[in-house]
Amino acid sequence: GLGDGKARVERMFGFMDRFLKNDPISLQKDIMDHVEYTVARSRFSFDDFEAYQALAHSVRDRLIERWHDTQLFFKRKDPKRIYFLSLEYLMGRSLSNSVINLGIRDQYADALTQLGFEYEVLAEQEGDAALGNGGLARLSACQMDSMATLDYPAWGYGLRYQYGLFRQVILDGYQHEQPDFWLNFGNPWEIERIHVTYPVKFYGTVHEEDVNGVKTQVWVPGETVEAVAYDNPIPGYGTRNTITLRLWAAKPSDQIDMESYNTGDYINAVVNRQGAESISSVLYPDDRSHQGKELRLKQQYFFVCASLQDVIRRFKDTHDSFDEFPEKIALQLNDTHPSLATAELMRVLIDEENLGWDKAWNIVCKVFSFTTHTVAPEALEKVPVDLMASLLPRHLQIIYDINHNFIEELKKKVGLDYNRLSRLSIVEEGAVKNIRMANLAIVCSHTVDGVSKSHSELLKTRVFKDFCELWPQKFHYKTNGVTQRRWLVVSNPSLSSLISKWLGTEAWIRDMDLLAGLQEHAANTDLHEEWNKVRQVNKMRLAEYIEAMSGVKVSLNAMFDVHVKRIHEYKRQFLNLLGIIYRYDCIKNMDKKDKSKVVPRVCIIGGKAAPGYEIAKKIIKLCHAVAEKINNDPDIGDLLKLVFIPDYNVSVAELVIPGADLSQHIRSTSYCLCMLKAFHLMLLTCLNFRHIILCEFYFFFNLFIIRISIYLSVINTEIWCSTAGHEASGTGCMKFLMNGCLLLATADGSTVEIIEEIGSENMFLFGARVHEVPALRESSPLKVPLQFARVVRMVGDGYFGFQDYFASLCDKVEGGNDFYLLASDFESYLEAQAAADRAFVDQEKWTRMSILSTAGSGRFSSDRTIEEYAETTWGIEPCRCPS
Ligand code: Z2T
């Protein structure tokens, strides 16, 4: 009974003084015990990796203590919980993040020194957990950190892929993919829950049965696999709260099907069962489309089914009636990947809990919210009806029923406008019938969020136009953010200390808005000196890494110009390369006198291409071919270097970002619409000015001045707002911004909001700028600038070798094919690059811009994003475990 539980809890809190201690002696003892008893090595003979393992296990013990307390506390308080469903998490390394969030990094460093080890060296032993592709997956990881730090009662659910994102190996400049054997050396950050398992069923048939006079659909599945839970504790910073990321692994069900064992073929029966594990074996490495793959759908359902069973089991532990379900549970769909959860919850509530359709539907509509991360309508997930019918026959029925009800309601509302109805329908008719997963998610969710202000505009005007018109109140946005714990405190400790010193507090680690306090010191020469020293040391670390990886020696006086992210045509790494070729060509044709004025550059590119994405792979090869030429040209020397950083991942990012002077976010924005908007605004402004001049000028001179400045600031922020970009948000730019790196960018996704925070004068923007609008209109996009044609031809004519191989790459931007507008943006791109050069020579100006970048990055903390979700979408409150 309750009394029992209470007494037990009190007794347990009585054991508090038995918690592990964090003084150096206790830490040393714990580490050495793990060397002996966990890693099972002699205390007198173990290597760095084994020392790391022991260290990790001692940290794990401390995580587990807090984790138990938090889970017990949540259970006692029974607050509304948020369940975050995502098929991808890019957690990277856990050691440093954990000891920093637990507040015991320095103690560990001391303890290790006394044992004769160096903390940094051991931390380098850890491999990345890379259970995701890119931005979306790292966002989930950042948001988990924020949910823990802000004390929200949150659970993350995901898949425990046996192989995460492939390792990128470069051979002769070509990308090769190798499996990521991340679990081969053990994973101290997870706890296997052998008793937390659920059956997941697939295939089979549905038939109608008469149960007590009620017609009931009965699914007789054809295959059962088991989902096993692996828990990853996620500690918050400055709190005892430690939440759970629960990842599911597939294993054969232990419910034996007697039939298959009776055929006498025992060996084959066992071997076939083992196939169940393939469901969670490998992460799909395409970051945008996985259309119609059976294994992918299996992964999605496996994940969703196990997670919901877990959620419902936890709910039923303390509740008798499903009426309270929506008050206690929020389910967040991270993109459409987990959107089968909607149909699955319907199925459970109807078929297993016997709530009936109306009650079930009422619950489903109240618990789900959906965040979309994409801009391109063609990137929206679709599942062929045939595939759904064979794998999940009962779910297909339910989806049809949901759609039928939806369309009937719609007809009442909008009449028989069949075009509109068919655009909104969850089922896409055509040669191949498809389920539109986004439509399913939207219809079943109470809120649909975009990931930046400009993304939300796009949703309204393009991607989900019809739905926005139907349910305008459903659509919102929460601008993405990243966690300053990982992207400043862990990855850039010296800059973090400097920030704390000048702000006089470490409170910014939990409250990023405080960074604005740096603004008042932006011109302080003492700060400048310390700031540059820190940045220079970070550049040195990066330079050492570059030399180790590529053999290229780079000068620390050069501007480190970084472009790291997944390789994609719309992200325009090709534009960057063409700019580099142009720069190379210019330097090559200079006389000695002019060369002395060149600002030296180290261009750094990194990122993975999806294995089947030919053009992206050619871009990687081109980078290597150009680098080969430039880096070995004695005419160029230190004036220009180009390096490709292989296998870009979270831990490489932690090294690269703090060492960057300039970073590129040059994704394509279509500027036809941009120009229209700019022109429209200019017109409006002129009209307003006339109005002011006629009516107010003589009487309200002061007011006039104020209004001018307001208008100018409006222009400044609005004018950059491209209405049709390709990047939903972009989060890399935020990490660079925090670290005091200047941005060279086009204005779409989150850059639009970065401009609002730090001002366009502190960045290098290109694309449609208001003063260029007339010029841009004159030169139609088909008119290719001469220099552009020239550098593309250098590639096409084999100047860098591999002429045939690069032909199709050149095709992509020549002869009117230039979909991502490389040609029309080339001149303004070069201008922005030249502006960066000019600013770099003026060290004082550059440093001020750098400080102001960090100072203006407060809004881009994922703490802010999560607070917005908690308050407006999830309706949850913090639940802080006492310490
Ligand atoms: C992804 O990383 C993103 C969008 C996707 O659309 C898929 C993947 Cl794997 C389905 C990215 C966006 O491209 C990026 O703009 C955004 O910042 C990020 O998600 C997080 O929202």
Automatic annotation (TrEMBL):
<dbReference type="GO" id="GO:0008184">
    <property type="term" value="F:glycogen phosphorylase activity"/>
</dbReference>
<comment type="similarity">
    <text>Belongs to the glycogen phosphorylase family.</text>
</comment>
<keyword id="KW-0663">Pyridoxal phosphate</keyword>
<dbReference type="GO" id="GO:0030170">
    <property type="term" value="F:pyridoxal phosphate binding"/>
</dbReference>
<dbReference type="GO" id="GO:0005980">
    <property type="term" value="P:glycogen catabolic process"/>
</dbReference>
<comment type="function">
    <text>Allosteric enzyme that catalyzes the rate-limiting step in glycogen catabolism, the phosphorolytic cleavage of glycogen to produce glucose-1-phosphate, and plays a central role in maintaining cellular and organismal glucose homeostasis.</text>
</comment>
<protein>
    <recommendedName>
        <fullName>Alpha-1,4 glucan phosphorylase</fullName>
        <ecNumber>2.4.1.1</ecNumber>
    </recommendedName>
</protein>
<dbReference type="GO" id="GO:0005737">
    <property type="term" value="C:cytoplasm"/>
</dbReference>
<keyword id="KW-0808">Transferase</keyword>
<keyword id="KW-0119">Carbohydrate metabolism</keyword>
<keyword id="KW-0328">Glycosyltransferase</keyword>
